[in-house]
């Protein structure tokens, strides 16, 4: 039995949002069957807001199965709500906990 690769991309810096998204695109283009999650916290949340420069690429990636998980603690600290993000963006109570859990589950960790 062959397992599909699973990669969690860690984004905590606004200026690295485009790089993280391009990394996700390269993964799904070049690695058959890969499952990708982009976990976002701290200042990284600013790079994925609706209407921002990354919205089109995010929509393309979401349409190809990439999941976007935003930290609820980071949202609260910035007075943001899920409505500040495209509808396919999900929230998790803690981005850091999500990263730890995924790694414990055997996901590959990528921090651009």
UniProtKB/TrEMBL annotation:
Question: InterPro entries from the entry?
Answer: DsrEFH-like, Sulphur_relay_DsrE/F-like
Which SUPFAM superfamilies does the UniProt entry name for this protein?
DsrEFH-like
In terms of superkingdom, the source organism counts as: Archaea
> What name does UniProt use for this protein?
DsrE family protein
Q: Which organism's genome codes for this protein? A: Methanoculleus oceani
């Amino acid at each position: 039995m062959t397992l599909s690769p699973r990669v969690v991309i860690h984004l905590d810096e606004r200026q690295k949002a485009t790089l993280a998204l391009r990394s996700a695109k390269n993964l799904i283009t070049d690695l058959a069957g890969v499952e990708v999650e982009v976990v976002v916290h701290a200042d990284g949340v600013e790079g994925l807001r609706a209407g921002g420069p990354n919205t089109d690429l995010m929509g393309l990636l979401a349409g190809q199965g990439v999941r976007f998980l935003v930290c609820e603690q980071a949202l609260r600290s910035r007075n943001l709500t899920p409505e500040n993000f495209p509808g396919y963006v999900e929230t998790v109570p803690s981005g850091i906990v999500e990263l730890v859990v995924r790694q414990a589950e055997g996901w590959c960790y990528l921090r651009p």
